[in-house]
Amino acid sequence: MTGKTDYLHGITLEKLLTELVEVYGWKTLSGWVRINCFRSDPSIKSSLKFLRRTPWARAQVEAVFIAYKEGKDNSQIAAIIKQMAGFSSNKKPAAAATGRGKVNPWGSRS
């Protein structure tokens, strides 16, 4: 059989999160995945509850786990998460780039 290894197959979210916390710690994880349950009085239990209810956050944590298993370094993991969150190191948001007012999601300035 050829192809990619499925690092998520057969692993529970609890085991995945526990392993990431053991390897990187809450501080590093909260820098990558910006959610309060990683920053303020973090625990496995509160984090699991939030991740099970929040698909975008769970996807980011799973991406960190896959990158870790693939041997990526911290800067590569950070870049993956930034890309998932829609950030680019080369681009600034329109409001920040122009220095003018807020950007309306429908395209006009307010």
TrEMBL record:
Signal sequence range: none
Chain segments carrying region Disordered: 89-110
Keywords: DNA-binding
Species classification: Bacteria, Pseudomonadati, Pseudomonadota, Gammaproteobacteria, Oceanospirillales
Protein name, UniProt field: VF530 family DNA-binding protein
GO function term, MF aspect, one: DNA binding
The species this protein was found in: Bacterioplanoides pacificum
InterPro entries: DNA-binding_VF530-like (IPR018668), SAP_dom_sf (IPR036361)
A Pfam family per the record: VF530
